Amino acid sequence: MPNNDGKCTVVPVHTGETTGRGLPMNKRYAPRIRLIFAVLILFSCIGCDQATKSIATQTLQHTPPQSFLADTVRLEYVLNPGGFLSLGGNLPDDIRSWIFIGFNSCMMLALCASLLLNLHMSFAVFVSVIFVLAGGVGNQIDRILNNGLVTDFINLGVGPLRTGVFNVADMAVTFGAIAAVFFLLRQKAAESNDVPERR
User: Fold this and answer.
1) Domain of 168, in residue numbers
2) Number of domains in the chain
3) 47-70, pLDDT tens digit by residue?
């Protein structure tokens, strides 16, 4: 607006609401929104995983493997004593139990703590890690309730080239891990491009 000298003065205008501490409202509620997303993803993934395992147990346990889409998809009931794609399944029972129940539980608790302490990390990375956590919890429920065994029932492949037998929790872990690495690498590349070259 013009002042007494006839010159115009620019007056800054604040368009967003602020909290009592002068912080934008979106900054204040961002951690809450992330926690809501985390809870939704966890309940959805774990619920879907447990539901599909229950259905597989009821419908596939006493039947031969079922083939679909020209044998691209096979559904077969398998109790896996190891980790992803049966890794570590041949270990002695005591060592296997310590690794897949004790150590995995500690790792998931550490992952939860890391997420809670870093709520302002990249949203894409945050969501990706939540998928990893959801898959880990889903399989951990199986191990605790089923004497260290995990229910697997999906097998994919073409001809002799096939995956191992896996489940929905394994899919969540794999998707989350690949997505987290992708977004972290992209973030690192973007930060490198923002650094001015030294002369």
Assistant:
1) 30-61+68-83+92-190
2) 1
3) 999 999 999 999 999 999 999 999
